[in-house]
Amino acid sequence: MTREIRTAASLAPVLGRDLLLDYRSSSGFFEDADLDTVRRGGARDLALADGLADFEQALANRLKTRRGELAALGHPDYGSRHHELIGEPNVDRTRHLIKLYVLQALRDEPRIERVLAVDVLPEHQPPRETVRITLSLRVQAVSQPLNLVLPFSLGV
To answer: What domain range includes position 43?
Structure first.
């Protein structure tokens, strides 16, 4: 089956549109975001993320949110449990649990058609506190697999 290549604007109804977050000061860790802005006609306005950019941002937010953290807002199952492993040693057992918890969080994302791969690997040899979570996903209305890397620190 051939899929058509679609623009960000045409993907917005499927993958969403939201305020664009700026993660520039977080060294790729998808933390400490601020709202991004754009200049329109001489004035600054809030920037928007459309389609795939919005989906990537939403996915990073889902994985960076502790499961249950948004329960008071009516979303008790949103987020991931891998944050429960902070303080654990960076060994195979811990990395396998991170993978399990990430897969559980991805299961709750309706825009994912299929998870192609999830790898959790130590960022350094010998392993220190940081792992890299590498995702390969088949996303609704997108012809190519989405590949995303999220660092995660086990440090307290």
So the answer is: 8-153
132: left (phi over 0), alpha (psi -120 to 50) or beta: beta
Alpha-carbon distance of 9 to 42, in angstroms, equals 24
pLDDT of residue 45: 82
Report yes or no: 11 and 4 within 8 Å, Cβ to Cβ: no
Peptide bond into 126 cis (omega under 30): yes
- What is the token pair recorded at 39? 């200049």
> How would you classify the pairing of strands 112-122 and 21-22?
unpaired
Q: Which two tokens stand for residue 62?
A: 């889902």
- For residue 46, tell me if it sits in a domain: yes
Residue 44 CB coordination number (10 Å): 9
Contact 79, 62 (CB under 8 A): yes
The model carries a pTM of 0.78
CATH of the domain at 56: 3.10.450.40
Q: pLDDT for 62-90, tens place per residue?
A: 998 999 999 999 999 999 999 999 999 99
Collapsing DSSP to helix, strand or coil, 53 comes out as: helix
Residue 102 in any domain: the answer is yes
Query: Comparing C-alpha atoms, which of 118, 130, 60 is closest to residue 88?
Result: 130
Cβ(51)–Cβ(11) below 8 Å: yes
